[in-house]
Task: inverse folding
């Protein structure tokens, strides 16, 4: 559903553009509204790109079945970025110059989408970038749009989980060598001290890495009480498997991309091994800036409660069994523990404050 929301944002933008003339260069205007969709069909981010394409196709079909936009059908043109920033930029240029798209989107990975910013601004064509870092916010220009949340929006939640729920004080950062990882490390160093978490080491890895044991050995030697994996490629998921195989049984939290169904299916046993993996995702009830924590064998934070003091109490779903449509996790159980039974450790306050509201 996160992919569908991303694509829907693009299609809504195209709907606005539907009333504007296209083909200003004198070329014949296409009979459809063409949108370029750049995603990883191959390469290290294909586990994210292929589901994104499925989501784009589904939403486009729904729009076209309802009559299209201003009577015109929506036509999605797909391009493979191959996990390369250079290929992403070339695909965007081809979509604009050759295929006459009215908008273009890069929907796989943060670093790839950044290479499209200059292209859309130079050509004055709206572009949607799926960047997960706030470091790029001031460089978007007039034609690049970023509808996704940034690190500072969701970092406090997993750090709060480590300190408030688990009582831990130290963590090791396992950071992907990418634009996404760069932003993650920057904001972790900025936010963690105020959250009471000491990052005792930062280890780095390439998105397509096939062996994470050197970094994990350094983390094990550091004595860190937990691990924060910041990445979007398959190497981050592999790190979970290899950590457990090495006997590293500390809690692991990750960013939203590591909750990809493809990664989960590939590493299910290790994702669910206690203490099971905890991922940050966005809560569809309140938009991209409202994060939610989920566990692979338990849904933590299927809904969030905020108080006048800004503290967060998590509603916990029971053990994994049947699907619950109101829960962010596709594997969550319908059994719930009432929110009134979940205490808040921060300041010794109860989570049953009357001023708290359910989002």
Result:
């Amino acid at each position: 559903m996160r992919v569908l929301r991303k694509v829907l944002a693009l299609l809504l933008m195209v709907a606005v553009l539907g009333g504007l003339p296209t083909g200003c260069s004198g070329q014949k205007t296409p009979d459809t509204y063409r949108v370029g969709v750049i995603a990883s069909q191959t390469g290290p981010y294909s586990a994210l790109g292929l589901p994104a394409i499925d989501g784009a196709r589904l939403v486009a079909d729904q729009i076209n079945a309802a009559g299209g936009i201003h009577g015109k059908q929506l036509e999605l043109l797909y391009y493979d970025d191959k996990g390369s920033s250079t290929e992403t930029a070339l695909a965007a240029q081809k979509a604009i110059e050759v295929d006459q798209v009215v908008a273009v989107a890069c929907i796989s990975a943060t670093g790839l989408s950044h290479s499209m910013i200059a292209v859309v601004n130079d050509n004055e064509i709206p572009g949607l970038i799926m960047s997960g870092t706030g470091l790029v916010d001031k460089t978007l220009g007039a034609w690049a749009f970023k509808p996704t949340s940034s690190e500072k929006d969701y970092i406090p939640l997993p750090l709060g989980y480590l300190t408030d729920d688990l009582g831990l004080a130290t963590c090791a950062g396992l950071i992907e060598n990418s634009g996404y990882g760069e932003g993650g490390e920057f904001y972790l160093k900025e936010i963690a001290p105020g959250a009471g978490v000491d990052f005792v080491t930062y280890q780095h890895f390439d998105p397509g890495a096939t062996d994470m044991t050197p970094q994990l050995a350094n983390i094990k030697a550091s004595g860190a009480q937990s691990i924060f994996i910041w990445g979007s490629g398959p190497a981050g998921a592999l790190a979970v498997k290899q950590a457990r195989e090495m006997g590293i049984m500390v809690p692991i939290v990750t960013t939203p991309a590591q909750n990809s169904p493809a990664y989960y299916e590939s590493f299910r046993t290790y994702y669910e091994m206690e203490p099971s993996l905890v991922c940050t995702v966005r809560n569809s009830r309140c938009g991209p800036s409202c994060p939610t924590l989920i566990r692979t064998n338990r849904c933590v934070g299927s809904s969030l409660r905020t108080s006048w003091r800004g503290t967060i109490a998590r509603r916990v779903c029971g053990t994994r069994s049947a699907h619950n449509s109101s829960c962010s996790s596709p594997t969550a159980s319908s059994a719930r523990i009432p929110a009134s039974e979940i205490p808040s450790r921060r300041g010794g306050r109860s989570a049953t404050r009357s001023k708290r509201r359910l989002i």
About this structure: The CA atoms of residues 282 and 291 lie 4 Å apart. The two ends are 18 Å apart (CA to CA).
